[in-house]
């Protein structure tokens, strides 16, 4: 991530065209939020390409088809007008009738881990398109288990990878060295892997620190209340189902972030009292001290959270502290998103912080003008956090990058971090030697284990206090 997959792909397609290997047309499918960036890069690296961006509502797309596709009486002419069609995942499915009738010289899927499930509509529809060659771009080919990797390989070469059971059986005991070598040999012809160290020899170092945070008094009160209120579900004899356990987990995660994520007192103007806002959360008290030092040291900071409501609270906090900032979450798309990035990256920009939601802000964004990343709360899927901090640790970065991951001590968060480490081991194994396990989603037992982690200590404090 941050190694120039976009640029390499554009130059690859351009060279195919310029050297006479292929006349196109090429289909590029990417997340809607990254399409503006793709347009820019095409303009810069392949100026002679006629690139059509196929997005917008039904009427807009109809106009594009009429004027840019070279249709004649609703039948496609043999001569297609454009070299590249740039579109989103959703439109691949919605406009299947039109796009699926074109013979594509090459398909490029950006953030191709979207294809990790062969039951998804996107996978099935795209599989029915007429495509000569396929190129999948991803920084995370394997997020949970080997099955997901198999589906990517099956999409690329279905004639070779068509037996999932056989594949999983063959690599069931993935911790054995001969199995790892065999898997690497199998993947070799299909995977071109670049490490930051290969591409960019002078890449500044990055250091990740797990910062263990204490719960505030208010948070402890809420945490105990959530646990006691759900005693039946948490007591194995009472036997809570998986859904109720996940709901409890979300409440506990909210509590670790900030108690105001539950109904909280507001001032007449609708905002919170700044001092109370900070003192109510262990993480915010720490963040307040850290940001002061980081600001004095001339650093710029990206702050990631999974919860948009937490980003709202962080906005209130930054306003209270008097820091200038930008923000991107799932509700901010296209042009507005790019404008925020451009403002933050502009020479001499005054913005000190950039608030991002882990999933929306983790894809195809370059924020190498920041050198500090704070993961306010960790994602279930460690690859989403890696995508997140790769916004800063990428080509163009000329300072050492510090990553601070906030984890509430003796809580669900601490246990989630341990589970995430296990998932990471599988990636290290498949794409380079190491150890790992085949399991993907969590069992009820694991959920149970996570929820109860640290509770003994929390309630023991109570008893000692009495």
TrEMBL record:
Record carries keyword Hydrolase: yes
Residue intervals of the Helicase ATP-binding domain: 1-159
- Report the domain of life of the source organism: Eukaryota
Where located?
A: Nucleus
Instruction: Please tell me one Gene Ontology term that the record gives under cellular component.
Output: NuRD complex
**Which CDD domains does this entry report, sorted A to Z?**
SF2_C_SNF
> Could you give a GO molecular-function term held by this entry?
ATP-dependent chromatin remodeler activity
Question: What are the Helicase C-terminal domain coordinates in residue numbering?
Answer: 286-451
Q: Which Pfam families match?
A: Helicase_C, SNF2-rel_dom
List the keywords (alphabetical): ATP-binding, Chromatin regulator, Hydrolase, Metal-binding, Nucleotide-binding, Nucleus, Repeat, Zinc, Zinc-finger
Reactions that this protein is recorded to catalyse: ATP + H2O = ADP + phosphate + H(+)
InterPro entries per the UniProt record, alphabetical: DNA/RNA_helicase_DEAH_CS, Helicase_ATP-bd, Helicase_C-like, P-loop_NTPase, SNF2-like_sf, SNF2/RAD54-like_C, SNF2_N
Could you say which protein family the record assigns here?
A: Belongs to the SNF2/RAD54 helicase family.
Concerning PANTHER family, the annotation shows: CHROMODOMAIN-HELICASE-DNA-BINDING PROTEIN 3-RELATED-RELATED, CHROMODOMAIN-HELICASE-DNA-BINDING PROTEIN 5
Q: What is this protein called?
A: CHD5 protein
Species of origin reads Geococcyx californianus
């Amino acid at each position: 991530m941050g190694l120039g997959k976009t640029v390499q792909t554009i130059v690859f397609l351009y060279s195919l065209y310029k050297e006479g290997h292929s006349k196109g047309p090429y289909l590029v499918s990417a997340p809607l939020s990254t399409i503006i960036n793709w347009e820019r890069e095409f303009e810069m690296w392949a100026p002679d390409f006629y690139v059509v961006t196929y997005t917008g509502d039904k009427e807009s797309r109809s106009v594009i088809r009429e004027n840019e596709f070279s249709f004649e009486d609703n039948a496609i002419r043999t001569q297609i007008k454009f070299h590249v069609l740039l579109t989103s995942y959703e439109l691949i499915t919605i406009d299947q009738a039109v796009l699926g009738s074109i013979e594509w010289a090459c398909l490029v899927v950006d953030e191709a881990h979207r294809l990790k499930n062969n039951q998804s509509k996107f996978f099935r529809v795209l599989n029915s398109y007429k495509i000569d060659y396929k190129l999948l771009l991803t920084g995370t080919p394997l997020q949970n288990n080997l099955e997901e990797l198999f589906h990517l390989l099956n999409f690329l070469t279905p004639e070779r990878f068509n037996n999932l059971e056989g594949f999983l059986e063959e690599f069931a005991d993935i911790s054995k060295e001969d199995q790892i070598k065999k898997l690497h040999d199998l993947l070799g012809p299909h995977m071109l892997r670049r490490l930051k160290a290969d591409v960019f020899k002078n890449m500044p170092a990055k250091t990740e620190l797990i910062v263990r945070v204490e719960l505030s008094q208010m948070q402890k009160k809420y945490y105990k209340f959530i646990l006691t209120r759900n005693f039946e579900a948490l007591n194995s004899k009472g036997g809570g189902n998986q859904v109720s356990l996940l709901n409890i987990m979300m409440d506990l995660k909210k509590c670790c972030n900030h108690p105001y994520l539950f109904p909280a007192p507001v001032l007449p103007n609708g905002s919170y009292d700044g001092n109370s806002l900070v003192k109510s959360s262990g993480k915010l008290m720490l963040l307040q001290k850290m940001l002061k030092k980081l600001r004095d040291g001339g650093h710029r900071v990206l702050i990631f959270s999974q919860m948009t409501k937490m980003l709202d609270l962080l906005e209130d906090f930054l306003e209270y502290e008097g820091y200038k900032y930008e923000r991107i979450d799932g509700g901010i798309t296209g042009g507005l998103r790019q404008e925020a990035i451009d403002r933050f990256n502009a020479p001499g920009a005054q913005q000190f912080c950039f608030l991002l939601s882990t999933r929306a802000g983790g894809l195809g964004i370059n924020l190498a003008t920041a050198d500090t990343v704070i993961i306010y709360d960790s994602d279930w899927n460690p690859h989403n956090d890696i995508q997140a901090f790769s916004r800063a640790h990428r080509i163009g970065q000329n300072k050492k990058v510090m990553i601070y991951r906030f984890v509430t001590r003796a809580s669900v968060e601490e246990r989630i971090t341990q589970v995430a480490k296990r998932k990471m081991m599988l990636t290290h194994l498949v794409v380079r030697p190491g150890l790992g396990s085949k399991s993907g989603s969590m069992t009820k037992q694991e959920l149970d284990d996570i929820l109860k982690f640290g509770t003994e200590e929390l309630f023991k404090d109570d008893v000692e206090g009495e």
